[in-house]
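Appendix B. Raw example, untouched.
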Amino acid sequence: MKKVDWGSIMTINNTFAIDATVFSDEIRHSQYATYRAKDAIADWFFERYNKRPSVDVANPDLRINLHIAQNYCTISLDSSGESLHKRGLRVSQNDAPINEALAAGMLLMAEWNGQCDFVDPMCGSGTLLIEAAMIALNIPPGIYRSSFGFERWNDFDEELFDRLYNDDSHERDFSHRLYGSDQSAYAIRIAEKNVRSAGLNKYIKLKVTPIQELNPPTQECMIVTNPPY
């Protein structure tokens, strides 16, 4: 850890945290590896500047991943920050909501690309509907996130990022509709909040309906749902 040029990656004023994963006969406890790595970074700065950077496990400027497999140690920087499955648009949720990345994976395996109407008869908080709309419109899944880990890196190019972030040239037209229903009025209210948060109201229609009364809008539609456990 001390062989790394930490001055090119962070400053004395940056906070940092270390996540360690260990598979080793020599080092058996990941917390031990975390402490030793933290001490090495602190010592690197102290030997040069007589000061140590601070650790912030909750919201660090720099999150460092340490992976030890027997005698091999890999150090990497976390470019994501908060887990990428968190899109940043779910403002409310029902019990046991489906993971956004899992929902997108289901849709991609079903070869959904916006080719017809879409129906989720047990929509809960609306995750499948929102992911289906974003795929149909080709909206990047991380566009609603408040931040990424790389935005705090020393070499972060804000101008380039803003240009990429605001580039909507790859978005597609979508001429069909997405229909969501649930027997729970509470779930539909939650779904409505999340759909509004995503700015997808014009594409998604929601209503309170038990699945026994399901009446697909057309013969040409795809039905995907996450049944309650």
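End of appendix B.
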